[in-house]
Amino acid sequence: MTIMISIPSALRQFAGGQSQIQVEARTAGEALEQLTATHIELRRHLFSDQNALRNFVNVYVNDEDIRHAAGADTQLKDGDTIMIVPSIAGGAAAEQEVVEELPMLSREEIARYSRHLIMPEVGMHGQRKLKAASVLMIGTGGLGAPTGMYLAAAGVGRLGIVDFDVVEASNLQRQIIHGTRDVGRRKTDSARDRLRDINPHIEIETHETRLTSENALRLFENYNIIVDGTDNFPTRYLVNDACVLTGKPNVYGSIFRFEGQASVFWPSAKNASGACYRCLYPEPPPPGLVPSCAEGGVLGVLPGIVGAIQANETIKIILGAEDILVNRLLLFDAWQMKFRELKLRKDPRCPVCGENPTIKELIDYEEFCGLRAEPQARESRLEEITATELKRRIDRGDDIQIIDVREPHEYEIARIPGTKLIPLSQIVNRLNEIDPSRETICHCKGGVRSAKAIDALNRAGFPGRLINLKGGITAWSNDVDPTVPTY
Amino acid sequence: MIALGQQHLTEIRAHGERDYPYECCGLLIGRFARDGTKLVLETYPISNAREEAAKRNRFLIRPEELLRGERYAREKKLEVIGFYHSHPDHQAVPSQYDLEHAWPTYSYIIVSVSNSRAEDLWSWEMQPDRSRFNKEEIEEFVGADL
Fold first, then answer.
1. pTM, entire model
2. CB B71, CB B11: distance < 8 Å
């Protein structure tokens, strides 16, 4: 069949200046193949790199769109005409403007990222976006470890890490960015070395400091995305508010025992008005109600899973992907091996991202979470003893009894000799097992739960004298008997 | 290079302001001069009544509308030489999405509109290897100078 193809004016320069080209073909697909075989330059403007007709290119056979007929297999008759017509795209960029000034990739980088590059969702362009991006990670603990390692491996061009801690042996069960030889080193130093080893092509910036209301905005300004890997409520609210105030996406994760959460809090997201952490949790829990991982424990793999999800979402934000965890709270239970998802909604009355925000600058987050005043009040009532003093009194043969308020499985890990175990949850019910005529020392792992036990016993009317072991069994191990393991 | 009359620039800006906070769009009708310069002789606004659908697929001008515009241009012995659209509350810079959905030769004029006021107006032309848009020089002429 002899077919006439009209060439749109924009493409004539790639068809030898002709406005019409004649081909011999039986189907529309064949006609386009014929056309682009003789005019190779035309091909890239009609077909994608995957050889599919570009989605904005429409082909008409005698005024009928072939998508409404048989597509490329649409049959042609002698004398038919084919027209090629574009649809015109619009819309401001969903992602950052990246038309100009994306960094190029070196030969080594192309080799390194090849598994990314061969996927059209990433490709050269996406990989260059990753290289142009910067991410600030708050904490290099359980969550920050996998997040940092995957972001470094993926080629995120500039990674900032904020931490003020030192690597301890009890970190190594989950914080896989640090190794055994790093115990005692600054976490920022240890993390930097590991990340540099994973990928020498990226920049790593260490911020050896505690994140505070004074430095947060300044730190956040220099990065595109913030990843929250913190383990406490004051810092979590601080990260949230600073992200809202600077307009940065907050890639959130949290973990406890076997359960994890992940989401992306991003009120200024394009095309969606995203909830922030305060829309989800307007008020922090009362102090002490929610135990930390140090008190309650955490399965070592759990932060690996949640942190990898955070890395995943961070990379998708950089690439401009659509289905990110905005307005979605992902809940994961490692023990049941179940994922669930909750829909989040932006709260128009949210004090920081709502319509009439009352928080316009960073506040005192320790105070907001009720952590300032309380310990002083407790200290005034609480009688305490240090581990060394306790040892002296035991050696002297004083008539004292020691109650361990930890859980049985903790008792199995380490114990102070001659103690009686009554877990905190049972302390009031088993009050009659404690002799009120003798002085009673209470201890736990670090001193917090035993202080609660003393408080509970006092309120239950226990008449005897109660003394808290300052620093718990950890202090005992450090100051008195190093053969008692710390955990 | 693209040459437009003052009145065309005014019309594009006014269209952007009128449709704010939605995007506006239209065709640029005129002719290709021998030296490659594009000369705009008329703007052809396209109504954008299907905002919801457009938001989803992000195509502002459907092929049927473009065909209608081309027919109109042909009657006047002119051609469609490019397109304009607005970026409400956004820079007048094309996105990666725009790059994947464009052809060379055409001019793509973007006007940024913020708070109902038209601001930057830039014209872009895709490099023939599809790798990027380049800013295109805009020459403004006064109607009678033709």
1. 0.54
2. no
